[in-house]
Amino acid sequence: WLYLKIQESDAQLKVLLTDDIDLNDGVDPSLMLGTESRPFTGIFDGGYHTIHYDYDEVTEKWRGLFAFVKDATIRNLRVEGSVDVTQIHYGALIGRGNGTILVENVITDVNITGAMNQVTGDAGMIGANYADITFNNCATLGEMGFEGSSMYSPFSGWSSGESKTTLNNCYSTCKLTEGTGTG
Prior knowledge:
Structural class: mainly beta
Helix content: under 10%
Number of helices: 0
Largest sheet: 11 strands, mixed
Strand content: over 45%
Order of helices and strands: EEEEEEEEEEEEEEE
């Protein structure tokens, strides 16, 4: 990506977004930041820019703009678009988080729709939370929910018993529709 300045230090990756990015030009939805074996670890500074995506079909669990994140900071970013999911734990920002995560000054405005008849765990920020995650000055907008879906939320779709979620100065105008969502 020409829009990223990447600096790798001893322990972590540092990324600064220098312009808006539109991922709608034929980008495969499986090409997200971080993998299960190599999660994004470091600092991603969006520079107050916007990343826009519209994914027609996401068929794998634990997906989001960042599929896997561990011990990271994501800040100063707006994420917008839409996604149609056929698998569990989709997060507009993070699919699955582990370790300690800080998200600050982030707005997501993503419409999440799909077709499943099970627990889905979808969310405006993180789909599956196995982390100690803190949200500072964040907002979720958009709309989520579809017939047969359950367990979706503006911030964290599903959380393990060991996870911890802290919200500081955050809000949501996310519209929860259909299914049995849990606001």
